[in-house]
């Protein structure tokens, strides 16, 4: 039974050329919707309620009755979960052709780093310092998302994190606001590229300050000054909004005592008022309910008052808590919240659906999706990304790259188990036979290796004999260390970041053989790896490198690709240092005395202040020399320059970084801040003049809600990482 939908009436009334609606027509559509239909647009239903739908040939016969009714009556506006293409088209048909309003659904899920292909985790991607790669990563996600029956992905996660105890550091862009902002914008543009056969909405999350959870414990409260919020945590969201992100997901936590889901200051005043965001907000899972349910935030009584509070604060779509579904109509009817506010939120949702072209093309054709990209191109991109995201942390005596013909003993857990390298958020992955494990990678690159597992990452028994035998039969040992790929991500907080006892024992056993050790570090977060740096000859941090990870990592191990990754988070010296980050502010006492013996300075009695390895750090297979470092003002820009020379025997990529420090301000300033970078590739003996121009305006910072221009003396560096370089002074 096909009804003439409200949308069809509007289209006819306005003689719409295309089905793209103007603001006026969106207003007209809202004006003709019932209260139930308006509430329905803000209700997100779980795809689990759609079970069995995929088996339906057409229409809604056999659909779970509550879904058929809800969608046909316009009581659902979006669906959570990758429900598959057949289900997507079946339920979309119900909404578009059988509901009165005829408004298409959005279907969203977490395609964080791919669907058919899994790219390295976002923290790894951030270590590429490569805007082009970030865009291509977003583009891959955008092209693959419709395959799962989705037109919306809850990506990119742009939460700054300075605390490796927080498992979600894996999903984000590291600890620096400027780098994270560039990554946020590039990924949004990739995901929402207009080159895709089916547009997909990106989602900036989790707004705002989620990575600063007290104690590094997920969901915990966040307390911070407005200055820090604006200078550190807000910029990647600002950059993503400016790049056109269509949706934003407020976070679970309370920010200075007010839950983000009902925090009108950040949702209305800042996000919409200051950043000019015109898309819609979607709550995190149950997050609206958790502001009022028993033993949760306690921000409101449950029911209609809570629904009113969330809607008024600026929350559009209720993911899973059913607060809107059950109580929002009542809240409006009782006058707890104005219907005009409801209209405003509905308009925001319709504007996004319109921007996605859903009124025009609500259905997805699998052939069209698969024809819009070459899967092998995506496999190759994932391999390239895995190589570019590796960070070489140590390489003594030229241990790496592996020499041709060398005999390798590969030891450790999961070298042939792809799951171990995928990292968090791979539930939406579509299984395929392209498995880039370490074993596959070494084989593909022609390495002569034997593999014996010998131990586990957790405290399983260590097979000393097998390890010694393998090492003695080889020229070099390639040993896996770290944590399983699924031990980071949501609610994976840890209070110990040190390597487990079995891994430390393995290191001792291998060391006793006298063979060179290459430690291959796999993890979704910075771990405490001092024993590896002390005892291994080379340490390569591969993070969770994704479904082509083994190929990409093997390309770096064999020298087919020179490592070029640079840390975007400090590696902690000890868990007790967390949160540890390079861009910390000054204190009333010196923080960088040469020895810890000084009594009255800011220090630990039992370790250094600085992390084990700093932000921006990374080695390659050659060496670079900096000379002629300068900084000067040219009009509105601060121009950093130097000469860079490849003083080694191999080609390589150096990421030249520009930092500043403002000496005097009304509020204490970070001792260094990244302002720009340039990736420079040089052959042996080659040198180049490098310039990095930074708008002086970019050095402004917030003091509370006030933007303050940079002024006075600044220390500057153009150098290889956040802990090195010759200091240059300039007065602005
Ligand atoms: C989760 C996560 C969020 C995700 C959402 C939907 O709890 O916090 O990042 O997008 O639920 O899966």
Description:
The chain has 732 residues and is α/β, with parallel strands linked by helices. 29% of the residues lie in helices and 18% in strands. The chain is built from 22 helices and 25 strands. The protein has a six-stranded mixed β-sheet with strand order 11-16-15-14-12-13, with helices on both faces. It has a five-stranded parallel β-sheet with strand order 4-3-2-1-10. Strands 20-19-24-25 form a four-stranded antiparallel β-sheet. Strand 2, helix 5 (85-98) and strand 3 (106-109) form a beta-alpha-beta unit. Helix 2 packs across helix 14 (339-355) and helix 19 (464-472) packs parallel to helix 20. Bound molecules: alpha-D-glucopyranose. Alpha-D-glucopyranose binds at residues 110, 154, 205, 284-285, 490.
Task: Record the SSE blueprint.
Blueprint (H helix, E strand, L loop, with lengths): L5 H8 L9 H10 L2 H7 L1 E4 L18 H8 L5 E3 L4 H14 L7 E4 L12 H5 L4 H14 L7 E2 L23 H15 L11 E5 L18 H8 L1 H8 L4 E4 L3 E2 L2 E2 L4 H11 L5 E2 L22 H10 L4 E2 L3 H11 L5 H17 L10 H5 L4 H15 L1 E5 L11 E5 L7 H4 L15 H7 L3 E5 L11 H9 L3 E7 L18 H12 L4 E6 L7 H6 L2 E4 L7 H9 L66 E11 L2 E10 L5 E11 L10 E10 L4 E9 L5 E3 L2 E3 L4 E7 L8 E4 L1
Parallel strand pairs: 1-2, 1-10, 2-3, 3-4, 5-6, 6-9, 12-13, 12-14, 14-15, 15-16
Antiparallel strand pairs: 7-8, 11-16, 17-18, 18-21, 19-20, 19-24, 22-23, 24-25
Helix pairs in contact: 2-14, 3-13, 3-14, 7-8, 7-16, 8-10, 12-13, 16-22, 18-22, 19-20
The structure holds alpha-D-glucopyranose (GLC).
